[in-house]
Amino acid sequence: MSLMRAKPVVGASVVAEVELAKPHEAMGVREQQRKLARVFWPKAEAGFVARFAVLNLIGAALIAAAWAEGLLFKPFAADSSGMCYLITALFAWGLACCLRRDWQSVRWVGNALVYLGMVGTVLGLIITVSDLSADKAESFESFRQIVTSIYVGSGTALYTNLLACIGYLWLGTNAHLLARQEV
Fold first, then answer.
1. Which of 92, 105, 90 is nearest to 40 (CA)?
2. Bridge partners of 18?
3. Which of 3, 4, 5, 153 could form a disulfide with 127 if both were Cys (CB 3.0 to 4.6 A apart)?
């Protein structure tokens, strides 16, 4: 969009000067940063932040109770594939998206958690089956190795699925109670 303005020049001649309307050139760097901050971190209203804090403090209390009972790190210790760490990081990103009110990303993270839980289950079954062999069933030591393989594989399968389900439910609760969104 351009604006035409007449400007008198020496000797009574008039030259048309074209000025392009570029508001981003006229604003300073600080103002651009504030506008970008409003886009990516919208101004939080006190009610939303309070509801988010209360809801997630309840979840933090449940995590503290799991830690006090010695249950918090069991999924990470039992998972030999590292999927539990990936699921936890993705969940943390989903919570940040809840705080930013980016409900589309929250929905994507929730769905990704469900799929990662299924992938973890299949990965755990693969770990279990990969160490099983009919040839090894002759001695007690080979039987012990088979049972260990089943334990490691089922730990990966069940704990990744458990963490993914908890993360999905937690994000879904945040989305529903904070914005009436479905994940």
1. 105
2. 4
3. 153
